[in-house]
Specification:
Length: 139
């Protein structure tokens, strides 16, 4: 192999290595921010009431996507999709301000899922639930 051939071979190897390193570094970030699935199958999830104290949020899997239960100050419960309506990132509960923040582009939602600010075009989707015998059943 002459010098030109070695350079070409080395260039191909380095390009492949760079692509592999980039994929390995970005995949965990993508998996964290992206919805777990686009599955549309219905689900039924049971969560003990005691697992959602006042002012707290509990995230859970609902039909392959992230969802969240919030117990507002005063005791009111709400169940929401945790998937941001802008580009599908998973929102985070901000306990201090009792609202949701999307880490991707700064979308801001109320505890009820309404849009406060940022790019989200609509509210977080509400999920149906019932409470009986100390168990919250979503779905
Ligand atoms: Fe949530 Fe863009 S994906 S603000």
């Amino acid at each position: 192999m002459d010098n030109s051939g070695r350079r070409t071979f080395l260039g191909v190897c380095l390009g492949g290595l760079a692509a592999a390193v980039t994929a390995a570094a970005t995949w965990p970030v993508y998996r964290y921010l992206a919805p777990r699935s686009t599955a549309t199958t219905a689900a039924r999830v049971e969560i003990p009431e005691k697992d959602v104290p006042e002012g707290e949020a509990k995230f859970f899997d609902f039909g392959g996507a992230s969802a969240v239960l919030v117990r507002k100050p005063g005791g009111g419960l709400i169940a929401l999709s945790a998937v941001c309506t802008h580009m599908g990132c998973i929102v985070q509960w901000e306990k201090d301000t009792q609202d949701f923040l999307c880490p991707c582009h700064g979308g801001h939602y109320t505890a009820d899922g309404g849009v406060i600010s940022g790019p989200p075009p609509k509210s977080l989707a509400k999920l149906p639930f019932i409470v009986a015998n100390g168990i919250i059943t979503i779905g």
